[in-house]
Amino acid sequence: MSDPATAPKPSFWELPEVPRALPFAAFLLIGSFAGAATEASAYWVYVLKTFVGAALLWHFRPRLAELRWAVSWEAVVVGVLIAALWIGLDGRIPALGTLYDTIGSRFTGKPVEAPKPEAPWNPLAFFKDNAPLGYAILVVRVVGRSFVVPMVEELFYRSFFHRFIASQDFLGLPIGLWNLRAFAITSVAFGLAHPGQWVQGIVCGAAYQFLVIRHKRLGDSITAHAITNALCSAYAIAAGKWEFT
User: Fold this and answer.
1) Per the confidence metrics, is the pTM higher than 0.70?
2) Which residues of 226-242 are buried (b: 16+ CB within 10 A; e: fewer)?
3) Phi, psi torsion values for 94, nearest 5 degrees
């Protein structure tokens, strides 16, 4: 019988953190280059990170037993309610950057500068001279947000991060673990990752985590996340509120 103390350490690629965190890290890294070179790069970078994220999920799928979609009435309700909250609170709560500047002005006495308006992500307008390309990128955006993003983010936050906070040996913990500290940190982290909608993000993170804890599986949170994003995208296209894409 081999001694665990002398057993060879797994390589980096064999670590259980890699298939759960690498797609998310790749998404963030590639996304950080959006708009860096040209305005058009904001669109091409999104296409690239969507395909890279999907490819990594497909590559690691044999090691991700928890990555299975599941449908429940709670997942549908949570998905719809979070979409309504996300849209309904938009513009009603200051973004984190605005709050930071406001608090800083209390100490420095300098007036808060109004944030520079950013052009909304609208491929139909940007590629108006090439409508087929604009629609193709829009399809990639909607499909990416509705299918790829939910799997990438739920895998990272709910499968890996939540359990890792409770124990570094996270695979030894059940997927539906209830741990108050992990629940709070994961929910806040999810909110901070959406600085423009940080309140909605915290509520959203808590709601998705509730689904995982209730059903002891990841699939319901993936489904709820997909419904939320799909509804936000549908609203953005129908109402011309492209910031929700």
Assistant:
1) yes
2) bbbbbbbbebbbeeeeb
3) -60, 145
Q: Which residues, other chains included, contact 225 with Cβ-Cβ below 8 Å and sequence gap of 6+?
A: 79, 149, 150, 153, 154, 208
Surface-to-core class of residue 24, CB atoms within 10 Å of its CB (0-12 exposed, 13-18 middle, 19+ buried): buried
Residues 6+ apart with CB under 8 A from 37: none
CA distance 176 to 208: 11
Return the domain boundaries, the chain: 11-244
- Listed residue (65, 15, 57) closest to 153, CA to CA: 57
* pLDDT tens string 50-105: 999 999 999 999 999 999 999 999 999 999 999 999 999 988 888 888 887 777 77
Q: Are 138 and 123 in contact (CB under 8 A)?
A: yes
Q: Cα–Cα distance between 136 and 86 in angstroms, integer?
A: 26
pLDDT digits (tens, 9 = 90+) for 104-129: 777 776 776 666 667 778 999 999 99
The DSSP line for 161-216 is IHHHHH-SSGGGS-TT---HHHHHHHHHHHHHTSGGGHHHHHHHHHHHHHHHHHHT
Place of tokens 């906070």: 165
CA 162 to chain centre: 14
